[in-house]
Structure formats: structure tokens, C-alpha cells
Specification:
Length: about 290
Amino acid sequence: MSNITTIHVLDLFPVFIIITGVWKTCIYTVLPIYLESKMSEKNPVFSNIQIVLVEPKVPGNVGAASRAIKNMGLSRLVVVNPWFQNHPQARYMAHGSEDILDSAEIVPTLKDAVASSIFVVGTTQRQRRGVPFMNPRQAASEVINNSVSGPVSILFGREDRGLLNEELAYCQILVNIPSSETQPSLNLSQAVMVIAYELFTGMYPVEKTPQDYASSEDLSTMYDHLKNSLDTLGMRQWNDGDNYMKSLRRVFSRTRLERRDVATIHKLCGEIDKYAHRTKTEIKKEFDK
């Protein structure tokens, strides 16, 4: 009962902002709680995914990775054996995501980081025999499917040499981020963002609005009307066959026409018909004088 009550109260939050006008306080205090509750309500498996940074060298990268994690709706960061803690550069780069940085779990070894994980993913440029090698979108699907059952870890290696072979041995799948051959190496936080983005879009795919596409019969009627209207204007085929109608069909076939598009073409043809009829009537009157 308490959960239901909480959701109902939080759903009234936007109305509360408008009525009271206390928007600054709400933005920095209540709004994050509201958004987090709505996101967890929509997809609770988010909390089962943790980003693991193995011995990062640059404090700013940890901060930037924290921001990427929060941007994409994730919340769990684990840092393995960092040489720094509470570094000002990390906090500066984590702007707006200091809570991710502050709640990050610091562990001495990778074994500790993945101890409770039922599925481990490693990001690397190197393939290993017998271990599936995927792109970020394929890997995101595997992560989402497994995170329903328990904790999942996604490993990111050191900026200078990545993950070691013994660290990759923990992984059930490996993921490679495609990039240009002239500069294949991504910054650590950029790599985190790419993977986190694929997870986010995989969990919250864009909802496609059903389209009211025209049927074959609608299109056939439209083409007949279009041909009759152009004939009325005096347009004639060139060479042999319905050449200009074939060209028009080719133009329209390059996109999916909706019923409203067909209605627009009918309206246009109707105006052509009325113009042609009016012109013929005026010419007839001139000859009858």
C-alpha cells in the first residue's frame, strides 16, 4: 500500500511545482527523486547493471564516466584499485553527477568487483578464442536479458593498455566499439557513454507511432485521378506507353504515402480539374460570341 501511495504522490509533483512556484528547490532536491522513481518503476533491471573501471589513470575520466552513467539512467559505478580518491578533477568532470561519484564502490581487485555478478562483459580490441565478440548493440541486448536474473558487470580497462588477459578471462562476452582505423582508441569516458547509450536505447526503445498508410487500392485510385487530371490539362505520353505515369509512380514509390498524403493529391487534382473546366468554359464562351 505504501508503494502505491508513494507513486500517486510523486505523480502529483509537476502540479505541485506549478501551484507553489518553488521550482528551484524542487529541481535540486525533489526532481531527482521523482525521475528516479519513474525510471525504476518502468525498468527495475537498471539497478542490476554496474560499470566497472579497472585501475583508471586519469581522475577526470572517472568523473566524466560518472556523468555518462547518470546521463543514460544507470547508477552503479565500481572502481578497481584507483591511485586516487576524492580527486578534484574527478568531481569537476562529474558535474551534476556527483552522487554517482560519491556512491562509487572502491575495491582492491577485479575479483572483488565481479564476485556477485552472474554475467560479465569486457570491452576490448582483442578477441579471445571461444569468447563471443560483439558490437555494442548486440552486447547491450545480452546485458539487458541477463540483468533480469541478477547483477551484471561491464568492464572498462586502463587508458593506456586496457584489460589484461587474466581480466578478460572473467568475461562471458567481449565487446568492441567500431571506430576509425586512423584513430581507433576511444577515451575511457567516451567508451562508457557509447555502451551506456546502447543500454538505455535497448531498455527504452523509441515508441513508434502507428502510421495510417495508404492501401494499394488508395494508391491505384490516386494514380487514376492524377492521370485523368493531367490528361485534362493536355499532357500527353512521350514515345510509347505510360511513360510520364511510370515516372510519377517511381517518384511516389520512394516514400510510404499515408492516407492524408493521398487525400492531398486528390485535392490537388480536384483543383486542376476545376481550373481546366473553368478554362474550357471561358474559351467556349469566347467562340460563341
